[in-house]
Specification:
The complex is a heterodimer of chains A (229) and B (1032). Chain A is mostly helical. Chain A has helices at residues 2-24, 46-52, 57-60, 75-82, 89-102, 112-120, 154-159, 164-168, 185-194, and one strand at residues 140-141. Chain B is an alpha/beta fold. Chain B has 4 domains: 5-37 and 730-741 and 750-786 and 796-811 and 846-851 and 864-1024, no CATH class; 148-211 and 397-545, Rossmann fold, CATH 3.40.50; 215-392, 3-Layer(aba) Sandwich (Dimethylsulfoxide Reductase, domain 2); 575-725, Beta Barrel (Barwin-like endoglucanases), CATH 2.40.40. Chain B has 31 helices and 43 strands. In chain B, the strands form 13 sheets. In chain B, strands 7-6-18-17-16-8-9 form a 7-stranded mixed sheet, sandwiched between helices. The chains are: A mainly alpha (229), B alpha/beta (1032). The A-B interface holds A 30-31, 33, 38, 62-63, 66-69, 71-77, 120-121, 135, 137-142, 145, 147-151, 153, 155-156, 159, 209-211, 221, 223-226, 228-229 and B 62-63, 65-66, 68-77, 82-85, 882, 884-886, 888, 890, 892-895, 932-935, 945, 948-949, 952, 956, 959-962.
């Protein structure tokens, strides 16, 4: 009887394991969403903006220093540049050359992804308000998501000199953002417990408000109630 | 033990009688198991395993990807808003007409928590339970959302078009137009009403209050020529005598007066300690905190006021006050000799403290109020404790004007009636007759937040905005103008009464412009145009104080006094009926608020019901027990109600007291207030509503609405209705074997008389563990020195602690609702409370002491004591409750598996278990949740966290500013809301912090100190001045 039950259990375990391998190719813990890289409503490239252009993360994610959430930038932040930048430079230059050749006014070249931004704001290609277009907020898909019972606050991390890449990975090299780390509690605690600068310092960060130099040994709490309450 | 019971505190009549098994070791188990011993037997091992198996299966099945969540930013961000960052808006509470200042904590445009405005002259930083609960009222899904025409939804433009034609006809014709509102404290709204009515030949504005002070207003009109209530300034008082006035509980401005009482009672100095004597028939919150409480039947109030005024006149050497009716003739029966002696003693005490003494009276009888005015005049109260120069405008209702209006309505002499913000059909006696005459009004318009009994009759019903969605200016006290600004965007598109009337009068200005215009007019009128703040500055501050105008009114007592209207004492076998308002429901509409319905009454600890309170002796005589349904029949009218009885210690033996404001339309929805499960019972009663309406038993006497003059017959019906009462839940007790050698165990509440305290130089001589008579204050030296933690346990950083002054606490329960709002504490419904499953993290234990017929009461806020040697931590098998480095006892929801060992082992019984995923009423109500605190799910334990989210936020703020955390930076929700400032929170390791100083105070003690659990909460013993040696 016992042997038969054991055999049954072994078969079940093999089935479950095999099924998981076939389906996902790897076994992972529940809640581990590393590698998650969904398609976004606008194909925004962090590689271009943060990598090539070298824009500081906090220019767009301005909440990181003041609030719990780093925040997804409002469309109005995009428009700080994209009110004038409407397409890749080479396309604009080519259109101008073509216009000069044909002896006509150059047309506005609008990149298809930027057109989505303008439409969201209810603007036409000339960035003028088009009454026929209703402004519609952009529904980004959230990538880095912690369970509801975890309180995470960007502010102390950013002010404490922890570089964004420490948790978010090399975003400046990603065209489409991907969750780099599994964001499990053990992974958080490893850093909190080490009390040594395992974190990447902010390259161009000013001195953090704590008055401590970037990359300083972190004195961080590992009390449960630091994150769970 | 039993022999000594009379001088030891007890919680319920059952405990007093010894029928409650307080020291039964199974009690804790019963507390945990449904409150019913049979439930233990009902769950078999087999069914348990079956369910556990399903649970395991569910856990396996749940290993899938979390649902995809969208992150939707704003298109264009307002300059001032950072997503996820809290900001504060100064506004004014709309919970009642008291007008306390409020700071609303908002995030992403939504209000999340209301707190008292520390600088505001009325609330002084406190906010009562009803004020805290306004947050939930805003998110009430049953609020009237669209205008209704004869019950069908329509829109404002249609209503305006339909009404404008009728208004034009009325302006041309007879134009008998009446506007009926509750007390209107907004100058701009008053102006709008006046402008609207000026367009008609016969227009009149009638105000009335469900909690009427009509007689006091009329008395001041007669004696001082000013129809207003004086503003009560208790701060400098030395002697307070209140006759049937619950001024700390269900009064005119309870937060203001609680703060004033606190300021007037400094236990450190006898000459700065105001003695408070309460004369009343039912046990009120105020009476429970009085130094001396005298039972007084409603029919004796007039005679007592008369005797008091006469006695004071004799002491002043003047003839009896002119307002006095000749020698209290109308009283049929002379006062009992001991009552007369008591009055004589009180007069002596008041006279000694003249210039700092005050007599308060809540009786709605004109002659009585005139007598009280003359007593106060003789005592020099006007100008000191009573301020008529900048009077209160918190009540302006005129019962006589209301009676006239009812007469006109009955005669069909009104063409247009506009009812706004009140529900006369539900709140007046003869509501049915009123409803009949309202049906005959050619044009009845009701502005309301809910479809109530009056609104349902109206041809047009217009939604009113919630106070948090409206522009407003509130002058609740003359010279203090507070403002409201709407939280953007409003949940519902409602239009204020001011805006409605302005637009009907052809004024196109919006609310902001109307309020701003009213402010400049007010500033000009008070001659402060040069010095006053601009409108924008005033809005940012939340209030402005304007200089007082004119001279103080002078008292003139004329000879033509009305006779005291006293009902004769009830005949033999009959009882006097006293109808009263509840502390939690200052306005009738609060009955729609589940936080307030589930708030235990500060005195009886009953939730979700009203009841007929009877004195223990009367109940025994009539053979009535708590929970028996009794029939209360008024004589001679025959009007009757049936509702459950409650045995109430301290109640007058000849009086039955019932709370108004129950059985209201709209409370049917609370049938589903609790979790849905097989054995769940609805929260509503047999009538389908919460409680029983008793408004039909009010009486209109000489133009004053009275709830205290009926004589009734009380009989048993034989049916029972189990009241959900928390008074015996979660009781704590000291095991007998821990009593000191030869002594009795120590009580959880300690009190000391003022005289003894002063004699001992501020030491309460509270009993400490291990000694029956310890004058010292060190807990640690007297308790066992056993140390739980090893030497290397962290000794650095803060150790958070709390001190609670029982002498200041009134039991008002503002902290309970404040905690509920801050920490997402669910509402569980009547049935679950009955099963000991209420979820509140802070409760107020109310102890009686002494004779059940005339006990003294103590209120003790009780929350997690954050023990240094926490018994809960050592028994958790999964380390879900552990100690933090700053001394907090942390509860980790995601680790908890729900064994409930911790709750079992908690000596203070402050842990709460989530038996269900409690229904969150609607998506709307979820907007009121605090996003910084986890919403706990079924199967986990929870408890007070000392508002750790606030500690963290304060730490982060300090770190961001590059400064160390200062004392007072962290205020838990309970401390913030407390009108009496009884709670102080801070770092016990910092010797200079306020909490450290209080923890070492001569009155400080710890509850259950003998267990050596090292609680972080210290209580300061209650101080009373019973007055036995006062004359010496």
């Amino acid at each position: 009887m016992l042997a038969r039950n054991l055999r049954l259990l072994a078969v079940l375990a093999a089935l479950l394991g095999g099924g998981a391998l076939l389906a996902g190719g790897e076994l992972r813990l529940p809640g581990d969403h590393s590698g998650f890289s969904p398609t976004q409503p606008i194909a925004f490239s962090h590689r271009l903006h943060a990598g090539e252009m070298g824009i500081d993360c906090r220019y767009c994610h301005a909440g990181a220093e003041q609030s719990r959430h780093a925040g997804i930038p409002e469309a109005s932040v995009c428009m700080n540049c994209h009110a004038t930048v409407t397409a890749r430079r080479d396309l604009v230059v080519a259109e101008q050359a073509a216009a000069t050749r044909d002896g006509r006014e150059p047309r506005t070249v609008v990149a298809p992804e930027l057109r989505k931004l303008y439409r969201a704001l209810g603007l036409d290609d000339e960035r003028q308000r088009d009454p026929a277009l209703a402004p519609q907020p952009i529904e980004w898909v959230r990538i880095h998501q912690l369970p509801d019972f975890v309180y995470f606050d960007h502010r102390p991390h950013v002010l404490g000199g922890v570089a964004c890449e420490s948790c978010h990975g090399p975003v400046q090299a990603m065209d489409r953002v991907r969750q780099q780390h599994h964001l499990s509690m053990g992974w958080c605690i490893d850093c909190h417990r080490s009390r040594v600068p395992t974190v990447l310092p902010f390259a161009a960060a000013p001195e953090p408000a704590t008055g401590l130099p970037a990359g300083h040994p972190a004195t961080v709490s590992i009390d449960c109630a630091t994150c769970h309450f | 033990m039993t022999g000594a019971r009379h001088d030891r505190p007890w919680r319920s009549p059952a405990e007093f009688a010894g029928t409650l098994p307080m020291h039964d070791p199974n009690e804790a188990i019963r507390d945990e198991w449904l409150g019913f011993p049979d439930a233990l037997a009902a769950t078999s091992r087999r069914s348990f395993l079956k369910l556990a198996g399903f649970g395991a299966l569910a856990a396996t099945a749940a290993c899938s990807r979390a649902p995809i969540e969208k992150a939707i930013p704003l298109l264009i961000r307002p300059e001032s808003i950072v997503p996820g960052k809290s900001y504060w808006i100064a506004t004014t509470c709309g919970g009642c007409s008291a007008g306390c200042g409020v700071l609303a904590r908002c995030r992403d445009g939504r209000p999340q928590k209301l707190e008292g405005h520390p600088g505001h002259p009325i609330g002084r930083g406190g906010l009562c339970a009803a004020g805290q609960a306004e947050l939930l009222s805003l998110h009430d899904r049953e609020r009237l959302a669209t205008p209704l025409e004869s019950g069908r939804a329509t829109d404002l433009a249609t209503v305006d078009a339909a009404i404008s034609g009728e208004l034009a006809a009325l302006r041309a014709g007879a134009g008998r137009v009446r506007v009926l509102t509750a007390t209107e404290t907004s100058p701009s709204a008053r102006a709008a009403i006046a402008r609207f009515l000026a367009g008609f030949k016969d227009g009149r504005h009638v105000e009335w209050d469900a909690d009427s002070r009509s007689a006091a207003l009329a008395a001041h009109a007669a004696t001082h020529g000013l129809r207003a209530l004086p503003r009560l300034r208790l701060d400098g008082a030395r002697s307070i005598v209140a006759i049937d006035d619950d001024f700390l509980g269900a009064g005119v401005s309870p937060v203001e007066h609680t703060a004033g009482r606190r300021a007037a009672r400094d236990p450190a100095a006898r000459e700065r300690f105001a003695r408070h004597v309460q004369l009343e028939s039912r046990m009120t919150l105020t009476g429970s905190r009085a130094d001396r409480r005298v039972k007084l039947a409603p029919w004796e109030i007039g005679a007592v006021a008369s005797a008091l005024a006469t006695s004071l006149a004799a002491r002043a050497g003047v003839p009896p006050p002119a307002a006095l009716p000749p020698a209290a003739e109308p009283v049929e029966r002379p006062l009992a000799a001991e009552l007369l002696a008591e009055v004589e003693r009180l007069a002596g005490e008041l006279w000694e403290a003249r210039g700092a003494a005050v007599v308060l009276c809540g009786c709605n009888d004109l002659a009585t109020q005139k007598l009280v005015n003359s007593a106060n005049e003789l005592l020099g109260a006007y100008g000191t404790t009573l301020d008529l120069h900048s009077p209160s405008r918190q009540r302006n209702g005129d019962d006589a004007a209301l009676a006239r209006l009812r007469q006109e309505l009955a005669e069909g002499a009104v063409d247009l009636l506009l009812v706004a913000g009140c529900d006369p059909v539900a709140d007046l006696p003869d509501g049915e007759a009123l409803a009949e005459s309202l049906k005959r009004v050619p044009l009845l318009i009701a502005c309301s937040t809910h479809v109530d009994a009056t609104t349902a009759l109206a041809r047009f019903a217009l939604p009113l905005p919630h106070a948090l969605e409206a522009w407003d200016d509130i002058e609740a006290v003359s010279g203090v103008v507070s403002f409201r600004q709407p939280i953007d965007p409003p949940l519902l598109a409602a239009r204020s009464l001011r805006r409605t009337l302005a637009s009907w009068s052809g004024d196109a200005r919006d609310d902001r412009e109307l309020v701003a215009a009213s402010y400049s007019a007010l500033v000009a009128e008070r001659g402060a145009a040069a010095s006053a703040a601009t409108f924008e500055q005033a809005l940012a501050a939340g209030f402005v104080e304007l200089p007082r105008a004119g001279a103080a009114p002078v008292a003139r007592f004329d000879r033509a006094a009305a006779a005291v209207v006293v009902a004769p004492p009830p005949a033999d076998g009959r009882l006097g009926l006293l109808l009263h308002r509840k502390v939690a429901f200052p306005l009738p509409r609060h009955a729609q608020n589940p936080w307030l319905q589930e708030l235990p009454d500060p005195v009886s600890k009953v939730v979700w019901d009203n009841y007929a309170a009877l004195a223990p002796s009367t109940a025994a005589r009539l053979g009535i027990a708590t929970g028996d349904v009794v029939r209360i029949e008024a004589e001679p009218s025959g009007a009757a109600v049936e509702l459950p009885a409650l045995v109430q210690p301290g109640q007058h033996g000849a009086v039955v007291a019932v709370a108004l404001g129950y059985g209201r339309r709209g409370t049917e929805r609370f049938a589903r207030a609790g979790p849905k499960w097989l054995e769940g019972r609805p929260t509503t009663g047999a009538n389908g509503r919460v409680g029983v309406a008793v408004e039909s038993l009010l009486a209109d006497v000489d133009g004053c609405l009275r709830g205290d003059i009926r004589s009734v017959k009380v009989t048993r019906t034989g049916r029972r209705h189990e009241l959900a009462c928390t008074q015996d839940h979660h009781s704590l007790s000291v095991p007998e074997h821990l009593a000191p050698e030869g002594g009795a165990t120590r009580d959880a509440v300690q009190s000391v008389s003022l005289v003894a305290l002063v004699e001992r130089g501020g030491h309460a001589r509270v009993a400490h563990a291990g000694s029956s008579d310890a004058g010292h204050d060190g807990a640690q030296e007297s308790a066992a020195d056993a140390e739980l933690w090893s030497d290397d346990h962290s000794g650095e950083g803060p150790r958070w602690g709390m001190a609670i002054d029982l002498a200041a606490c009134t039991g008002c329960s503002a902290c309970v609702v404040g905690c509920q709002a801050e920490n997402n504490v669910p509402v569980v419904g009547r049935d679950e409370v009955r099963r000991h499953r209420e979820m509140s993290w802070i409760r107020i234990d109310r102890y009686w002491q002494g004779d059940p017929e005339a006990p003294t009461a103590h209120h003790q806020p009780m929350m997690c004591q954050q023990c240094g040697h926490a018994p809960c931590e050592t028994v958790c098998p999964v380390l879900a409750t552990v100690h933090s480095s700053d001394g907090l006892n942390q509860q980790v929801y995601n680790r908890c598996v729900g064994t409930r060992y911790c709750a079992n082992n908690c000596p203070y019984k402050v842990r709460r278990f989530n038996w269900f995923d409690y229904p969150r009423d609607a998506a709307h109500a979820n907007l009121a949740l605090n996003p910084d605190v986890t919403v706990r799910s079924r199967g986990v334990m929870e408890k007070c966290s000392f508002c750790v989210q606030r500690i963290l936020a304060a730490k982060l703020d300090a770190r961001a500013d590059g400064r160390p955390l200062a004392d007072g930076d962290v205020q838990p929700a309970c401390q913030q809301s407390c009108p009496a400032q009884a709670i102080v929170f801070g770092d016990l390791r910092d010797p200079d912090s306020r909490v450290s100083r209080l923890a070492g105070h001569g009155r400080a003690y710890s509850v259950l100190e003998e267990l050596n659990v090292r609680p972080a909460v210290r209580y300061l013993a209650d101080v009373r001045d019973p007055g036995e040696v006062r004359d010496a």
